[in-house]
Design goal:
Elements lengths: L2 E5 L6 E2 L1 H14 L9 H7 L4 H8 L5 H22 L2 E2 L3 H9 L4 E5 L5 H9 L5 E6 H4 L3 H11 L4 E6 L2 H10 L2 E5 L11 E3 L5 H8 L1
Parallel strand pairs: 1-4, 1-6, 4-5, 6-7, 7-8
Antiparallel strand pairs: 2-3
Length: about 210
């Protein structure tokens, strides 16, 4: 039996909202768009959604071609910004990942754009701890599908997904894997599920569910 832990990104491993808002606002200003600038709260409100849904929420007043162009530019500028400045890494993430990696293979699945996960791993020097990643930007698939894909191609017979919002829980159920709620993140889970109040508690919680 091969067990593995699959992580969400935003609200679970880090909070990049401040950098995302700053970089997206640069794009708005360069295009001379007369609209309210993005706030950290705006970005928190869409964390975990796929890029097409985010574009529909924030740029609904634009035609689809312009909407896609602006969203693409925002993502590119965001990648550059985060590559230089990083985000807010949650406490004890590197050391906890290393402890978990001693017993279990680790993976990341997110609804982000292509390159976002890789940029995170490179900035914090965590690439050697993560065996495989997948995201909406790579294949256009929903999170549940990508969790199942990562579990299947890595031969996992038992897996747990660690995420912070209701959509993460729903995705874990769709993929047929266990779930741990990162309760310090951006969302709430109505169902009674295993939860951690800080990242380092994962070491004990994973042992308890397995």
């Amino acid at each position: 039996m091969k067990k593995g832990i699959i992580f969400d990104m935003d609200g679970t491993l880090w909070d990049s909202a401040e950098g995302v808002a700053a970089s997206w606002n640069q794009v708005l200003k360069e295009h001379g768009l007369d609209r309210r600038l993005f706030t950290v709260e705006d970005i928190h409100g869409v964390m975990g959604k796929t890029l097409d849904v985010i574009a529909d929420i924030f740029f609904a007043d634009m035609d689809r071609a312009m909407r896609g162009t602006i969203m693409e530019e925002c993502c590119a500028r965001e990648q550059d910004y985060l590559a230089q400045h990083g985000g807010r890494l949650y406490p004890n993430v590197p050391e906890t990942l290393r402890m978990l990696r001693e017993k279990y293979p680790l993976y990341i699945v997110s609804n982000c754009q292509r390159g976002y996960i890789e940029g995170f791993l490179q900035y914090y020097g965590l690439g050697d701890l993560i065996e495989d990643t997948e995201c909406f930007g790579n294949n256009g698939r929903q999170k549940g599908e990508n969790i199942a894909l990562v579990a299947e191609r890595n031969g996992l017979t038992d897996a747990v997904y660690v995420g912070d919002i209701e959509g993460d829980y729903a995705a874990s159920r769709a993929a047929g894997v266990r779930f741990i709620h990162a309760a310090y993140g951006f969302g709430f889970i109505e169902e009674p599920v295993a939860a951690v109040q800080e990242f380092r508690q994962l070491v004990q919680t994973v042992e308890e569910i397995w």
